[in-house]
C-alpha cells in the first residue's frame, strides 16, 4: 500500500521533474548565447539577432509541423522535397503570369496535399512513416527536377507581395520572423489547447487505446502529415522570395535540421511526449550554433561536427533527467 | 535444494516494501506465494534471485549463507525465475530461443546444432512435452512458449523455479499440461515457488501456502489444512462479509440485442440479448471467441454477418467511434496495452473518449475536463493525489477503475467488460463488483466476459457459455453451477 505521504512526495518529484525537463533546453540556449557573446560581443547586436531570427524562421516553421508528426510516433523525411516542389510551382505559375498571391496559395495547397499523400500512405497503405516519406522524398524531389528541368526558375518579377514574404519588414522585424511567431502561437494552441492536439498526443502515447477510445486515428494522422506539408511549403515561400528564384535543389536535407530541432526541444522520437515551445528553442539553438560559429570564423566542416555533438549531449542530458 | 529466507527487509527510497519476511522452500515441494498486488511478492523473489539487495535479513541455501549478485549468478546456482512477461524472440526458432546466449560451440566457434537438438529433445521429453524445435516461436501458443522458458531453466539445472502468474494467459488444456510438468519436476526434487491470484489453482497444485500482506509474511500453512476463505481472510486482513456484493437492481426491457453475428473462422451465429439493469456473464475457455465477439460488437473488427439492435434501433457500427456514439463502452482485457495511455495523467485518460464533449470549436475547456475527471475519480474511489497523476503510478486495481471511469463518463447504455478484475487485488475486486451493481441499478446493461468461474457465478444474472465460436448454452443465475458451465464450455452436452 502506498500511503498518502508517499503519494505527496511522488507528486513533488513529479512536478520538479517536469520543471527541469521544461527548463533544460532553455538553459542550454542561454548558456550557448552567453558563450558566443563572450567570444564575440557582436553576436547580440540587434542587426545580428534579427538576422539570426530570420535564418531560424524557415527551419522553425518546418520543425513546428515535424513536432506534430513526431509526437504521433512518426517522422516526415519528405519536407525538404515538399518545400522544393511547392516553391517551384509557385515560381513557375508567377513566371507564367498568375497573380502572386494566388500562386502562393496554390503552393500552400500543394504542400498540404503532398503531406496528406504521406498520411494516406501511412494510414491506408499501412506503411512505416520512415519508408513512406523516404519514398515520397525522392518522388517529390524527382518531380521538382522534372518540372524545373533541373534549372532554377527565375524572372519571377517584382510584385510587392512576393518580395514582402521573404524580404519585407513589419515594424522593423523581418516578415519571416513575424510569420514564425504567428505560426508558433497558432500551433501552440492547436497542440496544447485543442482536441486535435490532445488526440495527436493520445495516438503517440498509445495508438490502440486511442482507437478504442473512439479517436479516428487515421484522420488525425493524415491531418498531422498534411500540416507538416503545409509548414514546409510556407517555408518554401519565404525561401523563394529571399532567393528571388526557385531552386530545384532547395530544401535538401532540411528534414535533418527540423528533426534535430524537435529532438533538442525534448520531444520523444518514440512519440507521445513533446512540446512545441521546446521545438522553438531547439530551432534557436541550431540557429545560434550556425550563426555563432560563422561569426567566430569556424570552418563549416567543423560546424557539422559541433552540431552533431550538441545533439548527442542534449539527448543524453534529457535521458538522465527522465530517470 | 533447501532455501531459508529470514527477516528480509527492503525499502525503495522512503517506501518500505518488505518489513521482515520469513520464507522457506523445501526440496521437491510446490510452495504457493500469495498476497494482494503490492504485498511484496515480486520484491521478495527479486531479492532471492539477486536483482535487488535486501537491507536486512539473510538467505541460507542448504545450510550455507548465500547472496547472489545478479540473476545470472542465481541461475548458475540453480535458482531461476520465469517472469510473467516472457523473454522470447518471436522471429527465432524454438531451438535458437532455448540456447540463446548459451549456444553449444565447437573449438572454432561454430554452433553445434546437432548436439543442441539432442539436449533440447532430451529436456522436452523429460518434461513430457512435444515441441517442434524448428518452428518459429511466434507461431507457438503462449503455453508452448512457457514450456520453452521452463525447459531453459531445466537446462541450467535449476533446483528452484519461480513461476510468476504462469497460467495468466493459458487455456485450460495448457494449464493441465503445465500442472503435469510441475509434477514431473517435483518428482525430480525440483522445488517450485508458485505465485498466483487464482485460488482454485493454488489448492490444486501447491503443498504449502505462504500469505504476504503489506510487506510482512502473515503465515505459512499446509495447503491441506486451510481453506479458500481462510487464505482470502489472511490476504485482506479482515473478514469479507460477502465476497460478491448482493445485487438488487431491477431488470428492465431488452436494451441490446445481437442477431446471428458471424465472423468467418472466429464465431458463428451469435444471438443474445442484454436487458437494462442486467449483468450477463460470458463464460468459456480461453480462445473460444468471446473477446472476438465483443471486439466486433464494438466495431474494432468487421462482422461478416448479423445485426445489432440497441433500444429498438438497428445499429451500424464500423469503428469504435460509432459504437461510443451509440452509447456502448468497452473495457478491454489488457488495460495496459489497450485501456490506458500509461504516461498520461488520469484526467487525460478519463476524458479521452468524451474529449469532443469538452470542447467548443475544438478548444478544450480544461476546467470542465478536470472537474469531470475528479468527480468520476471520487465516485469510483480512485486512490491518487489528484487528476494529474500519471496512470502508470497507480496500482492495477486503481488503473482498472480509471478505465471504468472512461466508459462511465460517456454515459454508456451498454457496457462490455472483458476480464474486468484480471490482475486486480481482492479489495479492489469487490469495489469493482459493487460499481457494476451500481451501474446496473441505474439501468446500464452489462456484458461481462470472465474466465474466473466463481466470478461468473457470483456476479451474473445470466450466463452465456461460448464454445469454439458458438453459443453452447445459456443458464439463469438459479441454474448455473461450475459443472454445468464447464460441460458447455468443453463441448459436452
From TrEMBL, chain A:
Coiled-coil portions: none
Highest taxon, organism lineage: Bacteria
Membrane topology of the entry: Multi-pass membrane protein
Protein keywords: Cell membrane, Membrane, Transmembrane, Transmembrane helix
Single GO MF descriptor: transmembrane transporter activity
InterPro entries, alphabetized: ABC_transp_permease
A GO-annotated cellular component: plasma membrane
Transmembrane segments: 20-40, 52-70, 101-121, 128-148, 168-191, 222-239, 301-317
Compartments where located: Cell membrane
Name of the protein: Ribose transport system permease protein
Originating organism: Desemzia incerta
Lineage start: Bacteria, Bacillati, Bacillota, Bacilli, Lactobacillales
From TrEMBL, chain B:
GO (cellular component) term, any one: plasma membrane
Membrane topology classification: Peripheral membrane protein
Keyword annotations from UniProtKB, A to Z: ATP-binding, Cell membrane, Membrane, Nucleotide-binding, Repeat, Sugar transport, Translocase, Transport
Domain of life, source organism: Bacteria
Entry keyword annotation includes DNA repair: no
Residue intervals of the ABC transporter domain: 3-239, 249-493
One example GO MF annotation: ATP hydrolysis activity
Membrane-traversing stretches: none
PROSITE patterns: ABC_TRANSPORTER_1, ABC_TRANSPORTER_2
Protein's UniProt keywords contain S-adenosyl-L-methionine: no
Compartments, as annotated in UniProt: Cell membrane
Pfam families, A to Z: ABC_tran
Name the record gives this protein: Ribose ABC transporter ATP-binding protein
Species in which this protein is naturally found: Desemzia incerta
Amino acid at each position: 500500500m502506498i500511503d498518502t505521504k508517499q503519494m505527496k512526495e511522488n507528486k513533488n518529484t513529479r512536478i520538479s521533474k517536469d520543471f527541469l525537463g521544461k527548463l533544460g533546453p532553455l538553459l542550454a540556449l542561454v548558456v550557448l548565447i552567453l558563450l558566443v557573446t563572450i567570444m564575440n560581443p557582436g553576436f547580440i547586436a540587434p542587426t545580428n539577432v534579427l538576422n539570426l531570427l530570420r535564418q531560424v524562421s524557415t527551419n522553425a516553421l518546418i520543425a513546428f509541423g515535424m513536432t506534430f508528426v513526431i509526437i504521433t510516433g512518426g517522422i516526415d523525411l519528405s519536407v525538404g522535397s515538399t518545400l522544393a516542389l511547392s516553391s517551384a510551382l509557385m515560381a513557375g505559375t508567377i513566371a507564367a503570369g498568375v497573380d502572386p498571391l494566388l500562386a502562393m496559395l496554390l503552393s500552400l495547397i500543394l504542400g498540404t496535399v503532398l503531406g496528406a499523400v504521406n498520411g494516406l500512405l501511412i494510414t491506408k497503405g499501412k506503411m512505416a512513416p520512415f519508408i513512406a516519406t523516404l519514398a515520397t522524398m525522392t518522388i517529390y524531389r524527382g518531380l521538382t527536377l522534372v518540372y524545373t528541368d533541373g534549372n532554377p526558375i527565375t524572372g519571377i518579377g517584382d510584385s510587392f507581395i512576393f518580395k514582402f514574404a521573404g524580404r519585407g519588414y513589419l515594424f522593423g522585424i523581418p516578415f519571416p520572423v513575424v510569420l514564425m511567431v504567428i505560426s508558433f502561437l497558432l500551433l501552440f494552441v492547436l497542440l496544447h489547447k485543442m482536441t486535435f492536439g490532445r488526440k495527436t498526443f493520445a495516438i503517440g502515447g498509445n495508438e490502440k487505446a486511442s482507437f478504442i477510445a473512439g479517436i479516428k486515428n487515421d484522420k488525425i494522422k493524415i491531418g498531422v502529415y498534411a500540416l507538416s506539408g503545409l509548414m514546409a511549403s510556407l517555408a518554401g515561400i519565404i525561401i523563394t522570395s529571399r532567393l528571388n528564384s526557385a531552386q530545384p535543389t532547395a530544401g535538401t536535407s532540411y528534414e535533418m535540421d527540423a528533426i534535430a530541432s524537435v529532438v533538442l526541444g525534448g520531444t520523444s522520437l518514440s512519440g507521445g511526449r513533446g512540446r512545441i515551445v521546446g521545438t522553438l528553442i531547439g530551432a534557436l539553438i541550431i540557429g545560434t550554433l550556425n550563426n555563432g560559429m560563422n561569426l567566430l570564423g569556424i570552418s563549416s566542416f567543423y560546424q557539422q561536427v559541433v552540431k552533431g555533438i550538441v545533439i548527442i549531449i542534449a539527448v543524453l542530458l534529457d535521458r538522465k533527467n527522465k530517470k | 535444494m533447501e532455501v531459508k529466507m529470514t527477516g528480509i527487509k527492503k525499502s525503495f527510497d522512503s517506501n518500505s516494501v518488505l518489513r521482515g519476511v520469513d520464507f522457506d522452500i523445501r526440496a521437491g515441494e510446490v510452495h504457493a506465494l500469495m498476497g494482494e498486488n503490492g504485498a511484496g511478492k515480486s520484491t521478495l523473489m527479486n531479492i532471492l534471485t539477486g536483482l535487488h539487495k535486501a537491507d536486512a535479513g539473510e538467505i541460507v541455501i542448504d545450510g550455507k549463507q548465500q547472496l547472489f549478485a545478479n540473476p545470472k549468478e542465481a541461475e548458475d546456482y540453480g535458482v531461476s525465475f520465469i517472469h510473467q512477461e516472457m523473454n522470447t524472440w518471436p522471429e527465432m526458432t524454438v531451438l535458437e530461443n532455448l540456447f540463446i546466449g548459451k549456444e553449444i560451440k565447437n573449438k572454432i566457434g561454430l554452433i553445434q546444432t546437432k548436439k543442441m537438438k539432442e539436449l533440447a529433445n532430451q529436456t522436452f521429453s523429460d518434461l513430457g512435452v512435444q515441441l517442434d524445435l524448428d518452428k518459429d516461436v511466434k507461431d507457438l501458443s503462449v503455453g508452448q512458449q512457457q514450456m520453452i522458458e521452463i525447459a531453459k531453466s531445466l537446462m541450467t539445472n535449476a533446483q528452484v523455479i519461480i513461476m510468476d502468474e504462469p497460467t495468466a494467459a493459458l487455456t485450460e488444456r495448457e494449464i493441465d499440461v503445465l500442472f503435469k510438468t510441475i509434477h514431473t519436476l517435483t518428482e525430480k526434487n525440483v522445488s517450485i515457488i508458485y505465485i498466483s491470484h487464482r485460488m482454485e489453482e493454488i489448492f490444486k497444485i501447491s503443498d504449502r501456502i505462504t500469505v504476504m500482506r503489506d510487506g510482512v509474511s502473515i503465515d505459512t500453512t499446509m495447503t491441506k489444512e486451510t481453506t479458500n476463505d481462510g487464505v482470502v481472510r489472511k490476504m485482506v486482513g479482515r473478514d469479507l462479509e460477502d465476497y460478491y456484493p448482493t445485487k438488487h437492481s431491477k431488470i428492465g426491457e431488452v436494451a441490446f440485442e445481437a442477431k446471428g453475428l458471424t465472423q468467418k473462422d472466429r464465431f458463428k451465429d451469435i444471438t443474445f440479448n442484454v436487458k437494462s439493469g442486467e449483468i450477463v456473464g460470458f463464460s468459456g475457455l480461453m480462445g473460444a471467441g468471446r473477446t472476438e465477439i465483443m471486439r466486433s460488437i464494438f466495431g474494432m473488427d468487421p462482422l461478416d454477418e448479423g445485426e445489432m439492435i440497441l433500444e429498438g434501433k438497428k445499429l451500424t457500427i464500423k469503428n469504435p467511434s460509432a459504437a461510443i456514439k451509440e452509447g456502448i463502452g468497452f473495457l478491454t482485457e489488457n488495460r495496459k496495452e489497450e485501456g490506458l495511455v500509461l504516461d498520461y495523467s488520469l484526467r487525460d485518460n478519463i476524458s479521452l473518449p468524451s474529449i469532443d464533449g469538452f470542447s467548443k470549436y475544438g478548444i478544450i475547456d480544461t476546467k470542465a475536463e478536470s472537474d469531470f475527471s475528479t468527480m468520476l475519480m471520487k465516485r469510483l474511489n480512485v486512490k491518487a493525489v489528484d487528476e494529474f497523476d500519471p496512470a502508470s503510478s497507480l496500482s492495477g486495481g486503481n488503473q482498472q477503475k480509471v478505465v471504468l471511469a472512461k466508459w462511465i463518463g460517456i454515459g454508456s447504455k451498454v457496457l462490455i467488460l472483458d476480464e474486468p478484475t484480471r490482475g486486480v487485488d481482492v479489495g479492489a475486486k469487490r469495489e469493482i463488483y459493487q460499481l457494476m451493481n451500481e451501474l446496473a441499478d441505474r439501468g446500464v446493461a452489462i456484458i461481462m466476459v470472465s474466465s474466473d468461474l466463481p466470478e461468473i457465478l457470483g456476479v451474473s444474472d445470466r450466463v452465456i457459455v461460448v464454445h469454439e465460436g458458438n453459443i453452447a448454452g445459456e443458464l439463469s443465475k438459479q441454474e448455473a453451477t461450475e459443472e454445468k458451465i464447464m460441460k458447455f464450455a468443453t463441448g459436452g452436452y
